[in-house]
Amino acid sequence: MPKFLFEVSEVQTLEKESDDQMLENKLAIVKAEVINKESGTRICKGVIPVMYNDDGVYPSISTINSLDASKYIKTELMFRSKRYIKKLRRWL
């Protein structure tokens, strides 16, 4: 059973293209690590950029797909990183 660990290392505010744009887009750089609970070995490790605004949270799918891990791990990384930032976005 894998254990997912996340840490936000940096948050950037993306520039608005026009003054008419109502949403303020931000980019969180998330350090992710997946560890096997039973053996304690690391399954994979990576840095995932996650863009978010008032409408939603969007992890970088291409970055997650580039990791050397199983499809299950990649899918879980996408959903869990999204949930992690969604809970923290008020304070970031």
Describe the overall structure.
- This protein has 92 residues and is of the alpha+beta class.
- Helices cover 25% and strands 40% of the residues.
- It is built from two helices and four strands.
- It has a four-stranded antiparallel β-sheet.
- β2 and β3 form a beta hairpin.
- The chain is elongated.
- The model has no long low-confidence stretch (mean pLDDT 92).
Give a summary of the structure in a few sentences.
It contains 2 helices and 4 strands. With 92 residues, it is an alpha+beta fold.
Overview features:
single chain, 92 residues, alpha+beta, 4-stranded antiparallel sheet, 4 strands, elongated
Describe the secondary-structure layout:
Blueprint: E1 2-13, E2 26-36, E3 42-52, E4 57-59, H1 61-65, H2 71-88
Antiparallel strand pairs: 1-2, 2-3, 3-4
